[in-house]
Specification:
Layout (H helix, E strand, L loop, with lengths): L11 E5 L4 H12 L3 E6 L2 H15 L3 E5 L5 H14 L4 E4 L14 H29 L2 E6 L12 H21 L4 E6 L4 E2 L2 H5 L12 E2 H14 L3 E2 L7 H15 L15
Parallel strand pairs: 1-2, 1-4, 2-3, 4-5, 5-6, 6-9, 7-8
Helix pairs in contact: 1-2, 1-7, 3-4, 4-5
Length: 270
């Protein structure tokens, strides 16, 4: 006799930038874990191919949502879909790109597009997902940053800046929602074997093979880190104490910024 208890609805995840690389790796892993999926990217043919493969392999429901997150109308379309979903179990803000060159040589329109995707879209989609998660008292958000968030350097000014935003945004958001049952993570991968580097101009052949991680390894590490409660996940970092020391150094800097409400002695004349 069949059970009279209805089955729990499948968990639902939305993954942006899902047509390749880390996004596709997340979608594949989550499908295997039984999540229903909404996969978002610009390349509809790639998404349809991925969706068909995941449906055949896992039997989960996979919805394709074609959108260019640098375009306001497409971004609003994804926001609306998140709102319609009610309460996502997991949002993976993976969409993003980088172009490495001196700022003076950068195309202003490309720089703006980078900020729109890496910062604005991530922020708005997170905001769209939060009400449903807060209402239900559960949910997780993974914001894909980069190891370069901690490495300001020549040729990386805009990209590193956008990824530093993601880290600070995620850390601050954690303070807002952790007591509401919501987990948030900034994923900061190192050099990963993906198509991302074609657009950034990185020549992977010049990188020692032992420094390269696969997209699948990055996605698996992120999800493991989420279960461990890591707000900052650096997949290749063996000693997690470095993160604690980094956060303590920032805290010490903040505590000592205005100890007496006056400019520091070196800034005073006479």
């Amino acid at each position: 006799m069949a059970s009279s208890h209805p089955k729990n609805p499948p968990r639902l995840a939305l993954v942006t930038g899902a047509s390749s690389g880390i996004g596709a790796a997340f979608a594949t892993r989550l499908a295997r874990d039984g999540y229903g999926l909404i996969v978002v990217a610009r390349r509809g043919d790639r998404l349809e191919e991925l969706a068909a493969k995941l449906r055949a392999q896992t039997g989960v429901q996979v919805e394709v949502l074609v959108a260019d997150l640098a375009r306001a109308t497409d971004l609003h379309k994804v926001e609306t879909r998140i709102t319609q979903a009610g309460a996502l179990d997991l949002l993976v803000n993976n969409a993003g790109f980088g172009v490495y060159k001196p700022l003076v040589d950068g195309d202003p329109d490309v720089l703006e597009e980078m900020i729109l995707v890496n910062v604005l879209a991530l922020t708005r989609l997170t905001r769209a997902a939060l009400p449903g998660m807060v209402s239900r008292g559960s949910g997780s958000i993974i914001n894909v940053s980069s190891g370069l968030a901690f490495m300001p350097s020549a040729t990386w000014a805009t990209y590193s800046g956008t990824k530093a935003y993601v880290v600070n945004f995620t850390r601050s958001l954690t303070e807002e929602v952790s007591e509401k049952g919501i987990r948030v993570q900034a994923l900061c991968p190192g050099i990963t074997l993906t198509e991302f580097h074609r657009r950034s101009g990185t020549d992977l052949s010049r990188i020692p093979p032992h420094m390269l991680m696969t997209a699948e390894e990055v996605a698996d590490a992120s999800l493991a880190g989420l279960e461990l409660g890591e707000v900052i996940c650096l997949p290749g970092l063996s000693d997690e104490a470095y993160i604690a020391r980094f956060e303590e150094a920032q805290s010490a800097l903040t505590r000592n910024m205005t100890p007496d409400g006056k400019p520091a002695a070196r800034y005073r004349k006479g």
